[in-house]
Amino acid sequence: MFFHQKFVPGLAIYSYIVGDERTKQAAIIDPTRDVDEFIDIAKQNGLQIKHVLETHVHADFVSGSRELKARLGSSVTVHASGMGGPDWTPTYADHIVQDGDPVVMGSLRLVAMHTPGHTLEHLSWALFDDQRSNESPWLIFTGDFAFVGDVGRPDLLGEEARKVLASQLYKSVFNRMPDWPEFAEIFPGHGAGSLCGKAIGSRGSSTVGYERHFNAALIEKPESQWIGDLMDQMPLSPPYFARMKRINKEGPKVLGSELPGQCVLTVDEVHGRKDVSHLVLDVRSKEAFAGGHIPGAINIPLGPMLPTWAGWILPYDRPILVVADDVEQMPTVATHLVRVGFDDVQGFLIGMDDWEKRGYATAKLSTMTAQQLHDRIGNMIVLDVRTESEWNNGHLDGAIHVHGGTLPQHFDRVPRDQPVAVICGSGYRASIAASLLKREGYTDIANVDGGMSAWSAAGYPALNSKGESVHVACATAST
Q1: For a tag site, which of 230, 385, 433, 450 has the least CB within 10 Å?
Q2: What are phi and psi of 204, to 5 degrees?
Q3: End-to-end alpha-carbon separation of the chain, Å?
Q4: What is the SS3 assignment for 44?
Q5: d(CA 28, CA 43)
Q6: Residue 40 neighbours by CB distance under 10 Å
Q7: Containing structural domain, residue 399
Q8: In a domain, 260, yes or no
Q9: Is 476 contained in some domain?
């Protein structure tokens, strides 16, 4: 059997290629929209992609199923669950899957198992190698039902749906999963860092038996208690999740072999388009952005978290102009953006040198050290844009807490007539938030270099959620 696991950092997505080495047929499970890697790997190994399997209608990224079908032609069959009803059945699926339906490739057989709870239609795919055993699955692709160390969250469709889904998830965990053999390997749809669960482990696989014994979410309790424990401290989900659901149900636009926006724009072109109808996204480092940027630009430094933060804060109805450090970054930035549905990338401005030489206006973002902030406490507003759990573990006395992803909905909580210091774990999220504030018209804004990590390293005081003095052990989480 041919097997390949693809991992996308940041969004923490796992996709899979499995193939029968005799018939040379292959299947892709939960593909991302950037499909070239799947096509290239199949070609390099002499495989023909014949099937594309979805575990569910994804919320955190745009599926690549339709893209693969468009690129490879009618010989490819897209398989998607029909068990959530017409509202959650992808319109572009060739095979509407029911519980127990098989997909056969030579001696390999992938069998659909309905495991609702994360979503109504959710499937897990059990892989059998009939040359070894036609009774026991070798691998199980669990999608967002079961992760290493966790299970999928049931609350992404709203509170009313959560009540139904949480109960379904409980039944899937304690009624359906016990039938799976302990030795079967679990390959999930996400790893650590995904917002589709709250305690997902960093390993790419596990076994049913190990998870059954050591996954806290698989310890049986009364249903109401189990649901309460599962939902306790569940992280916020970005608003773009609802959009991804709609796109993946109806079918995303086919991109073709060319990524959008792969052209370098002149400073005059950018200046001419930089108006109310276009958005400037600056993906340079927070230090470069602070030193000089296009007024009104939003800073999301290039890295694995770019797509998540783009989904959190960027509007989907605006063409995007990107400011990057060099031409080589263009494909990476565009790939990050199309994974979460930002298709209208118009082009790139490389650096700010030509912009400044042309005499166009620039803006700067002030920065300050932890010591400078400490010396000014009481004379400025401190805005903490970390997650709720980080805030609860330790924050500055008197700070305002607004999760950075929700800041555009909560500008009214941040005073405009006082200087504002923005703080996060390390400075990454604070730069994003500070750029949003400046775009909104705030003038006296500073990013705290090193964030709470620097504050803690300097030995300055912090309070936990109970008002007790604590030493903050800071991670540099950027979600």
Answers
A1: 450
A2: -85, -5
A3: 37
A4: helix
A5: 13
A6: 10
A7: 366-470
A8: no
A9: no
Is this model's pTM higher than 0.90 or not? yes
Burial (0-12, 13-18, 19+ Cβ within 10 Å), 199: middle
Task: Give yes or no: residues 210 and 282 share one domain.
Answer: no
Note whether residue 262 is domain-resident: no
Q: Which of 6, 54, 75, 64 is nearest to 31 (CA)?
A: 64
Question: What does the alpha-carbon distance between residue 295 and residue 389 come to, in Å, rounded to a whole number?
Answer: 33
Q: Where residue 103 sits, what CATH number does that domain have?
A: 3.60.15.10
d(CA 188, CA 140): 8
Is the separation of the CB atoms in 89 and 121 below 8 Å?
Answer: yes
Q: Are residues 213 and 311 in the same domain?
A: no
Cα 155 off chain centre by: 16
Q: Kindly report the backbone phi and psi dihedral angles of residue 98, in degrees, each rounded to the nearest multiple of 5, phi listed first.
A: -115, 165
Interatomic CA distance for residues 57 and 63, integer angstroms: 8
Contact 348, 324 (CB under 8 A): yes
Do 156 and 120 sit in the same domain of this protein?
yes
Token pair 């198992």 in the structure block, residue: 113
pLDDT higher than threshold 90 for residue 465: no
**221 shares a domain with 177:** yes
Residue 477: pLDDT band (50, 70, 90) is: very low
What is the identity of the amino acid at 12?
A
Q: Take residue 36 and report the two structure tokens written for it.
A: 């070239």
Residues 313, 435: contact at Cβ < 8 Å? no
Out of 196, 263, 424, 474, which one is annotated catalytic?
424
Q: Which amino acid is at 171?
A: K
- The H or E element that residue 446 is part of is strand 445-448
Co-location of 79 and 211 in the same domain: yes
CA distance 163 to 223: 11
Q: What is the model's pLDDT at position 473?
A: 62
478 pLDDT above the threshold of 70: no
Q: What is the DSSP letter of 378?
A: T
140-169 residue pLDDT tens: 999 999 999 999 999 999 889 999 999 999
Residue 223, number of CB atoms within 10 A of its CB: 14
Q: Is the residue at 478 inside a domain?
A: no
Pairing type for strands 279-282 and 366-368 reads unpaired
**What is the chain's alpha carbon radius of gyration, rounded to the nearest angstrom?**
24
What is the Cα–Cα distance from 93 to 85, expressed in whole angstroms?
Answer: 13
User: Which amino acid belongs to residue 14?
Assistant: Y
User: What's the CATH code of the domain at 430?
Assistant: 3.40.250.10
Q: Are 185 and 205 in contact (CB under 8 A)?
A: yes
Assess whether 424 carries a catalytic annotation: yes
Segment holding 187, helix H or strand E: strand 185-188
